[in-house]
Amino acid sequence: MGQMYFVKGFTELMMAETYCSGLAFSDASQATGPLDVKFGPSLTTADALNAALGTLDSAVLFAATTDTLATKIRSAARVARARALLALNRYADARTEVAAVTTFQPYTLTYLQTSGDNGIWSLNNSQRRYTVSDSADPRVGRVRNATPFVSANDKRVPTRTNGASFETTIPNVAQQIWAVRDAAIQLIQPLDARLIEAEVQLKSGEITNYFATMNALRTAIALPNLVDPVDPDARVSQFFREKAFFQFGRGTRLGDLRRLI
To answer: 171-196 burial, b for 16+ CB within 10 Å, e for fewer?
Structure first.
């Protein structure tokens, strides 16, 4: 039951982070046909985030035992709750949510070649409908908050050239994080909790602690320490750039951009 509530709550979180105000959570559990749906009310983004918080709270409550699966679900639900709290500008509450989340097994999506492909691999590497790119608008070139996912050659986002894209006029660049059709995706991992802590530290002006947290994450993958740009706005830009590389492809970027802008 805890896992069912986590999946429901995580879906509500992703919808709240992704869509504009006005979305609805509807109910087809009693439907007798395709149009027999109990439509929910129009929700603001805050309403949707609070709904996700409530569902994820149920996930934590139902995953209350100490076995490995329950611990994984409970930890993942707390990290997801912290994401919702950040979006609601409740930074202190987000810090509290992840404080007890230390080492845990990532919540992982797995795939079998007999039943379905890793969707990122399928759409990017195989079908070539998506391409990894430096964030840019072809009409005006580089844009504000652009992230050079390809040209940075950052080890966190390995890529390779992959011929032409599906519509043939744009080159395709393939990500190599999930390089095969049945590669597992760590939907939520301990790194995510530490990045939430770092964001709260930066927001609270705890600059020494912030750089200690970020540099520990970089050291763990053999990257050099960050250089403090000193300017507060530059620190914010630096953080969200780092977060984009650390969490590439796992569905966090749009919610991050909403806070960034």
So the answer is: ebbbbbbbeeeebebebbbbbbbbbb
List C-alpha distances in Å: 227 to 176, 230, 249: 28, 9, 25
pLDDT of residue 102: 87
Question: Is 150 within 8 Å of 142 (Cβ atoms)?
Answer: no
Q: CA 84 to CA 188: how far, in whole Å?
A: 14
Euclidean distance between CA atoms 247 and 2, whole angstroms: 25
The per-residue pLDDT for range 210-232, each reduced to its tens digit, is: 999 999 999 999 999 999 999 99
Q: Which residues of 129-168 are buried (b: 16+ CB within 10 A; e: fewer)?
A: ebbbbebeeeeeeeeeeebbbbeeebebbebeebeebeee
**Residue numbers of the chain with a pLDDT score lower than 50:** none
CA torsion sign for 192, 194, 198, 203 is positive
- Kindly tell me the burial class for residue 250, based on how many C-beta atoms sit within 10 Å of its own C-beta (0-12, 13-18, 19 or more): middle
Closest CA to 26 of 36, 14, 16, 13: 36
